[in-house]
Amino acid sequence: MNELRALFVTCALLSTACVSTAKYDAALEDARKAKAEIDRLHGESEQQKQANAAQLDKINADVQAARTALQEHDNQLSQASVQSHNLQAKLDESTAIGQRLREELQRLGKNVDGLLSEKGTMSHALEDAKLRLEELRKAQAATDARTALFKQLIQKFKKLTDAGQLRIELRDGRMILQLPNDVLFDSGQAVVKPDGQRAIGQVAGVLKTLSGRKFQVAGHTDNVPIDRAKFASNWELSTARAVAVVHFLVSQGVAADALSAAGYGEFAPLAANDTAEHKAKNRRIEISLVPAMDELVNLPDIK
């Protein structure tokens, strides 16, 4: 503003009176400086205008983005309102599972309502419960199928069981066919007797129809020491008898790769070796149906 005032004064002096050359030059220089300052201020004003315009554009863009986000949020709220009935139905479907979880947590002395109110806890707990229930359903289906198979086999072996030549047990989740040694072998021998061959032949007729199954033949004795030079101990005797039964089953059509043999001697008794009856019970051949991997679910023992 001072430069403008100097310019105006200079112009007034030039127009109203005669001045010296020195004063004229000084006034002219002041006028030039004032004009340069005006030009500079004008340039800065244009730059500020451009900066203000850019800032305004950015503000407008931010406002538009906020409007778009607000509209999207409103749409989501609308969709959530429409879907609330479906979500409620799903929640109702899981009510029984949630009730089980609440009862269990209450038993442990936990604050169930507080736990389920935490973000994500309820949905995760319900999902885990559903997975566990699905696993239980699969295990139950496998157990039911295996139990049905066992019942069919029991029916097929009914003639032998009624004759006292075979006993069927479910032990440790496995089906076990027990044949008394007295029916199969003479004392201290490992050669299958004719009556034993007929019994094993009937067993083989059923086993060879079970495609994909494996069987273990196990020999057992009482605790009376063996006095035959051919066998060093009851282990050798029980193993030799198991192998003899395996060979006979193969001769009757049971696949060799489905069979294995084991000898337990007197070390897996069913009863104490304190009476003649108990000793006879311990002298036996057991044919076990080896469970498949998907059948490894414990069943209650049935005797």
Polypeptide structure, described:
It is built from ten helices and five strands, in the order H-H-H-H-H-H-E-E-H-H-E-H-E-H-E. With 303 residues, the chain is an alpha+beta fold. The protein folds into three domains: 2-77; 112-147; 148-295, 60s Ribosomal Protein L30, Chain: A, CATH 3.30.1330.60. Helix 1 (2-16) packs antiparallel against helix 2 and helix 8 crosses helix 9. The longest helix has 73 residues, at 21-93. The protein is rod-shaped, with a radius of gyration of 50 Å. It starts with a helix and ends in a 13-residue tail after the last strand. The model is unreliable at 13-18 (pLDDT under 50).
Main beta sheet, described? 5 strands, mixed
Looking at this structure, what is the CATH superfamily of the largest domain? OmpA-like domain
Based on CA atoms alone, the radius of gyration comes out at 50 Å
Instruction: Give the ordered list of helices and strands.
Output: HHHHHHEEHHEHEHE
Q: Kindly report the spatial arrangement of strands forming the biggest sheet.
A: 1-2-5-3-4
Categorize the overall geometry: rod-shaped
Distance between the termini: 117 Å
**How many separate domains make up the residues?**
3
- Percent strand: 5-15%
Identify low-pLDDT runs.
13-18
Blueprint (SSEs and pairs):
Blueprint: H1 2-16, H2 21-93, H3 95-107, H4 112-117, H5 121-156, H6 158-162, E1 167-171, E2 174-180, H7 181-184, H8 194-207, E3 214-220, H9 234-251, E4 259-263, H10 276-282, E5 284-290
Parallel strand pairs: 3-4
Antiparallel strand pairs: 1-2, 2-5, 3-5
